[in-house]
Amino acid sequence: MTGTLLVRDDGDLRRITLNRPAKINALDTATLRALAEAVDGAPVAGAALVTIDGAGPRGFCAGGDVAEMSRGAEAFAAQEEALRAAMQALHGSAVPVISVVHGRTLGAGCIVACLSDLVLGADGVQFGFPEMRFGLYPAFVHAALTERLPAALAFQILAGGRMMDAAQAYGFGFLTEILPADGFAETAEARIAWYRDRLDALAAGRRILRMEDRPSMAEKTARLAPLLAENHAAPSVRRLLSGLSFAR
C-alpha cells in the first residue's frame, strides 16, 4: 500500500503491519488512509480475517503523528479526516480484525486496538493516552474507548493521561489475551491460527455484538469533530505543542 504500511495476503488471512519503526509506527495521514483502504479491501481480496501488528521492538503504535499535526490547521484536518476513515473501516469491517500489540501503544494506537474484535498483547505492553500533555482531550480516542467502557470511565482515563500495564489493560477489557513477551511472535501466531480455525463462530459472535442499537463510528466522530477542532485551535495547545520534542 505505502512504505509505511505493509499488506500481505495469505489465503483467507490479510496481514497488515504498521511500518514506521523509527517513530514507533506513529500514524500519519498517508498511513491512516492506507490502513482504511487495506481493511476495507480485505474481503475483495478473499480475506476472512485481518491481523494488524507493528514493526520494530519499541511498540505497536505511538499514536497519531504529532509532528505532522503540529504543522498547522490544514495538516491537522487532513490527519483527522484520515483517522476518521480508518476508524470507520475498523468499526465497520466486514471481517473480524485481530490486533497484535506490544510495547508502547498510545493514543490512536489504542483506537486501532479498541476497534479490533480481539487484541493479543505481550505482557510488557503499555497502553497510554498522552494527548493531555499538549492540552488536547482525545475526542476520537474517547469514541473508541466507549465501544468497550462506560463513557464516564473513559473520561477519567483520558483526562488523567493514564498509562496502564498489561494486567490493567486486560482488566479494562482492552486486551483479549496476555501472552509472554518471550516468544511473543510465535505464541501470537499460534493464537491467530486458533481463531482462524473458528472463524464461523467468531463471525457469529460479531453479529450478536452488532445487534445492539448503537451509533455508527461515522456518526460518533461527526459529532465529536467540531469539538476536537475547537480544542486544537486553543492557544494553550499551541503553547504546549511548541515545548514538545517530537523525537520518538
Give a description of the structure.
- The radius of gyration is 17 Å and the shape is globular.
- Helix content is 46%, strand content 16%.
- α1 packs parallel to α3, α4 packs parallel to α5 and α5 runs antiparallel to α10.
- β2, α1 and β3 form a beta-alpha-beta unit.
- The strands form two sheets. A six-stranded mixed β-sheet has the order 1-2-3-4-6-9, with helices on both faces. The protein has a three-stranded mixed β-sheet with strand order 5-7-8.
- The protein has 248 residues and is α/β, with parallel strands linked by helices.
- The protein is built from eleven helices and nine strands.
- Morphology: globular
Output the number of helix runs: 11
Mean pLDDT: 90
Low-confidence stretches: none
Spatial gap, N to C terminus:
24 Å
Beta-strand fraction estimate? 15-25%
Give the structural class.
alpha/beta
Give the strand tally: 9
Order of helices and strands: EEHEHHEEHEEHHEHEHHHH
Query: Biggest sheet, strands in spatial order?
Result: 1-2-3-4-6-9
Secondary structure elements and pairings:
Blueprint: E1 5-10, E2 13-18, H1 29-40, E3 49-54, H2 66-69, H3 73-91, E4 97-101, E5 104-106, H4 108-114, E6 118-122, E7 126-128, H5 139-145, H6 151-159, E8 163-164, H7 166-172, E9 177-179, H8 184-196, H9 199-209, H10 217-232, H11 235-242
Parallel strand pairs: 2-3, 3-4, 4-6, 5-7, 6-9
Antiparallel strand pairs: 1-2, 7-8
Helix pairs in contact: 1-3, 3-10, 4-5, 5-10
What can be said about this structure in brief?
With 248 residues, this protein is an alpha/beta fold. It is built from eleven helices and nine strands.
